[in-house]
Design a protein that fits this description.
25% helix, 3 domains, alpha+beta, Immunoglobulin-like, 5-stranded mixed beta sheet
Length: 336
């Protein structure tokens, strides 16, 4: 009887062993990852920053891996790679894939030219990794953008006085550059200086100070006094030389006195000649900065490669002066 029972159970036992072995093999091996495909599209940003927006879609949408809730679900990530001049891939950035298989990445302005880029999907336990086809992105260098203001916008000065204007430079989105300042439309006998004249604007508002220097009216009087003083300076050694000739008997000292007299005569003659030329052919009196209104144009210029941006802000200068002859020549050209 035992022999018959053993004969009956042996085939059944072998079947059970085979079933357990197959089940163990099935549960012990990881599930094969589902094949995916990745699509990449590119577009310029809607603003003037020159940035590029990369949109990636993974199909079919990957299943979440290793997450207890949809908020912490891992659907993998994509990396945007650019093929450089060395034919090697260089990452432009990465972004996570959402439950629909989409990802978006915005990168700063690319250098001018054509760039070859692709999207690389990392994959998950249930979704295989994949790479998109290469896409060509043509980028143009963005012109630098900023705004220029000045305070005060109106200056009231008297000829000979100095005035200051605060210049404020506000950068646009992504602006990181230097702005060079200059001015135009100055009235006669007026200068402008900027401190600093080349302003470093690195993403935040920067400033400079414009100083206007005007000229007061003046004539020849002061110059005539200086010229007369030089005449007396030459007469003094001549007088001492003559006194020395009359009183000194030493031969050497008398020779020195003679040289003083000769030098005084030459210097005095030269000074008198200069005085004569000044009185008869010299420049006319300086009338100073003319009275009236002028429009001073303040320019800010930034350069990015072959592109440049120039902004203008105008300051009105009202001058009080005895010089009214140059009023008609004052510049009233506004910023265009």
């Amino acid at each position: 009887m035992q022999s018959a029972l053993h004969t009956t159970l042996s085939p059944l036992f072998r079947v059970i062993v085979v079933v357990f072995a197959l089940a163990s093999a099935a549960f012990g091996q990881p599930q094969a990852a589902l094949a995916t495909s990745t699509t990449l599209t590119t577009a310029r940003a809607s603003d003037a920053s020159g940035r590029t927006v990369f949109t990636v879609h993974v199909s079919p949408a990957p299943q979440a891996a290793g997450a207890d809730s949809s908020e912490n679900a891992d659907y993998g990530s994509v990396t945007i790679e650019e093929t450089g001049s060395d034919n090697q891939p260089h990452s432009l950035g990465s972004a996570f894939v959402d439950a629909e298989g989409n990802a978006t990445l915005t990168v700063p302005a690319l250098s001018a030219g054509t760039h070859s880029v692709r999207a690389v999907y990392s994959g998950t336990e249930s979704a295989a990794s994949s790479i998109s086809e290469a896409a060509g992105v043509t980028s143009e260098a963005a012109a630098p953008d900023f705004s220029l203001t000045a305070s005060p916008s109106t200056l009231n000065l008297t000829a000979g006085l100095q005035g200051s204007v605060a210049i404020t430079i506000t950068p646009g989105a992504g602006f990181n550059n230097y702005v060079n300042l200059s001015c135009a439309g100055l009235p006669l006998f007026t200068t402008c200086n900027f401190l600093p004249s080349n302003v470093d604007v690195t993403g935040s508002t920067a400033g400079s100070t414009m100083t206007l220097n005007t000229t007061a009216p003046s004539g020849k009087t002061s110059l005539l006094r200086r010229d007369t003083g030089m005449v007396y300076a030459f007469l003094l050694p001549g007088a001492l030389g003559l006194a020395g000739l009359a009183l000194v008997r030493n031969r050497t000292l008398r020779m020195l006195a003679i040289l003083c007299v000769i030098g005084s005569l030459i210097g005095g003659a030269s000074s008198c000649a200069q005085r004569y030329r000044y009185l008869n052919y010299g420049p006319g009196p300086n009338l100073g900065t003319p009275a009236g209104e002028s429009i001073i144009r303040v320019y800010g210029t930034a350069v990015n490669g072959a592109l440049s941006t120039s902004k203008c802000f105008q300051v009105t200068l009202n001058m009080t002066s005895t010089n009214t002859s140059g009023t008609a020549g004052n510049s009233l050209i506004p910023c265009s």
